Amino acid sequence: LLLSVPAAAPTGLGMEVMAPTTINALNGTSVKLSCTFNSCYKVENKQFSLNWTYQECKNCSEELFLQFRMKIMNKQLDRFGNRVEFTGNPTKYDVSFTLNNVQLEDEGTYNCYVLNPPDRQRGHASISLKVLTKEPPKRDSTVAVIVGASVGGFLAVVILVLMVVKCVRRKKQQRLNTDDQKTEEEGKTDGEGNPDEGTK
């Protein structure tokens, strides 16, 4: 199994969904298609929803093959049979799955859609799966691993900080909206209860 350098794919205002842009897998092996997300709210199974779809080509229609509504439901496409295994944990913001016995025909785009109310925006990330017929030659990747780990760690910290700031701002805005509504209602009450004292 060979993975490209992961890249965050933030979409929408409500949440960020992260997944590698490209994954390489050796024909006949198992591969994990990783998809995680950030949300300001705790995952509640009654409201949370997840869809995984497959696209054979850029302009092809999307085929739903895995869904979460209260529980995981596999849509058994003839293409995958029973080779799809959900290996994520929504309560830990992980909705990854594993594709077993990878075939050349499995190449294509895999779309991960996540919705976690009260977030209103549905998050989305795409993964391009490339199937290799032979393992590429090994290279000394020590430097690449160090650089990748450093960059990945930095990005993770940045995303975490931005997420915290966004959540704080959102909750503050919700409080301000509530306070404005209360002030408006109190103003109406005062206006109705106090006669004009300037006229005698």
Automatic annotation (TrEMBL):
Q: Where in the cell is it found?
A: Membrane
The organism's superkingdom is given as Eukaryota
Gene Ontology cellular-component terms for this entry are: plasma membrane
Bilayer-spanning residue ranges: 143-165
Q: Which UniProt keywords apply?
A: Disulfide bond, Glycoprotein, Immunoglobulin domain, Membrane, Signal, Transmembrane, Transmembrane helix
Renumbered to this chain, region (Disordered) spans 173-200
Q: Which residues belong to any copy of the Ig-like domain?
A: 6-128
How does this protein sit in the membrane? Single-pass type I membrane protein
Q: Which PROSITE patterns match?
A: IG_LIKE
What segments bear the compositional bias annotation Basic and acidic residues?
A: 177-200
Q: Which residues form the signal peptide?
A: none
Q: Which InterPro entries match?
A: Ig-like_dom (IPR007110), Ig-like_dom_sf (IPR036179), Ig-like_fold (IPR013783), Ig_sub (IPR003599), Ig_V-set (IPR013106), Myelin_P0-rel (IPR000920)
Does rRNA-binding count among this protein's keywords? Answer: no
Report what the protein is called: SCN2B protein
**Species this protein is from:** Anseranas semipalmata
Gene (name only): Scn2b
